[in-house]
Design brief:
- This protein has 13 helices and eight strands.
- It is α/β, with parallel strands linked by helices.
- The chain has two domains: 166 residues, Rossmann fold; 201 residues, Dehydroquinate synthase-like - alpha domain (Dehydroquinate synthase-like, alpha domain), CATH 1.20.1090.
- The protein has a six-stranded parallel sheet, covered by helices on one side. Strands 6-7 form a two-stranded antiparallel sheet.
- The protein starts with 10 loop residues before the first strand and ends with a helix.
Length: 384
């Protein structure tokens, strides 16, 4: 196990009706920016509950944060917050809204070029405090310090990390997910699944507790995935999905572990080039990546196959069968694993992603930093 440092300052309030706690947990003198996406929060009950909780606070709202939040929209929110002298953010939504809120929190007090915040290219000295009300479980953004922001003007989708944008508070109410479309539920399950495997499925590293945490999350997602799709109002299933997605990127799974993230690097480029949902790019890339890297990942794939899927046989047999099981599960959740399902030409996708990785200087990917843009091109061609 590698050395590590861990700290997570986010207070989590889990369960039905927890939005009401915003009234006491947000400072009375705070001038609040309520940040959200479309109208779904006005249909699932979150908006009315937040209005009630903040009735003694000064607050203003800004809506329209896109899936894959865009820099241009977020800068409008930044200017709005500055003009209104708002100093506390409440983000309501899924990972996109919360990621966007992290950028806004960092950008409002920033004096320089705010685009340089992305990619950690400029130091931050402060950020606005942030609370997250989660309505779409998938990314774990509600209690970590990472965000991914897109810029349509330059065809970029890039991340940044900074402890200053850790949410102070996260409200996780599973009942807010009841009205989600099946597509978004399936996306969230696969997103959480791949977040877990990016930190777990590399090579054996004697991080036994972290391995068991990862395997428990994966088994939970496999168990409750079909239930969350078939029974939208099943509280226990939705609660376990929400907590599994949170824990996938809370920070514990990857402690002391070699981590991959090549699927995400390729997936981000597929999203910006072809407009695919983030989770759907991961469902395409991950099985293809595992097959391409079968030799170097075989030991961990075999462990995964035996512990998570209950498979038997030689390491090679179990590893191959585990990849097939994973692809089947993604498809069961409604996410195809081939580019052709979206009428995307594999050569065009492969060449486009390789070119984007080169442009973004992502020249060495994977847990051993030995996966090149040419390798990524070859992986995507196999995902035809």
């Amino acid at each position: 196990m590698h050395a590590f440092s861990f700290h997570n300052p986010c207070q989590i309030e889990f369960g039905a009706g927890q939005i009401a706690k915003l009234a006491q947990l947000i400072p009375a003198q705070a001038r609040v920016l309520l940040l959200y996406g479309g109208g779904s929060i006005k249909h699932n009950g979150a908006y009315d509950q937040i209005c009630s909780a903040l009735k003694q606070h000064h607050w203003r709202e800004f809506s329209g944060i896109e899936p894959n939040p865009e820099f241009e929209t977020l800068m409008q929110a930044v200017q709005f917050a500055r003009n209104e002298q708002l100093d506390y953010i409440v983000a309501v939504g899924g990972g996109s809204v919360i990621d966007g809120a992290k950028f806004v929190a960092a950008a409002v007090p920033h004096n320089g070029d705010c685009w340089l915040i992305i990619g950690n290219r400029t130091p931050l000295s402060t950020a606005l405090p942030l609370a997250a009300v989660l309505t779409l479980p998938a990314t774990g953004s509600e209690s970590n310090f990472a965000a991914v922001i897109s810029r349509r003007e330059t065809n970029d989708k890039l991340s940044f990390k900074n402890p200053l944008v850790f949410p102070k508070l996260a409200i996780l109410d599973p009942t807010l997910t009841y009205s989600l479309p099946a597509r978004q539920v399936g996306n969230g399950i696969v997103d959480a699944f791949v977040h877990t495997t990016e930190q777990y499925l590399t090579y054996p590293n004697e991080a036994r507790v972290q391995d068991r945490l990862a395997e428990g999350i994966l088994q939970t997602l496999i168990e409750i995935g079909p239930i969350t799709l078939a029974e939208p109002n099943n509280y226990d299933a939705r609660a376990n999905l929400m907590w599994a997605a949170n824990q996938a990127l809370y920070g514990m799974v990857g402690l002391g572990q070699p981590q991959d993230w090549a699927s995400h690097a390729m997936g981000h480029e597929l999203t910006i080039l072809f407009g695919l949902d983030h989770a759907r790019t991961l469902a395409i890339v991950l099985p293809a990546l595992w097959r391409y890297r079968l030799q170097s990942k075989q030991a961990k794939l075999a462990q995964y196959g035996r512990r998570v899927w209950g498979l038997n046989g030689s390491d090679a047999q179990v590893a191959n069968a585990a990849i097939d099981k994973t692809a089947d599960f993604f498809q069961q959740m409604g996410l195809p694993t081939q580019l052709s399902a979206y009428s995307i030409d594999a050569d065009e996708a492969a060449n486009g992603v390789a070119a984007q990785l080169i442009r973004h200087q992502r020249l060495k990917l994977g847990e051993k930093q030995d996966l090149t843009p040419d390798d990524c091109r070859a992986i995507l061609i196999t995902a035809a």
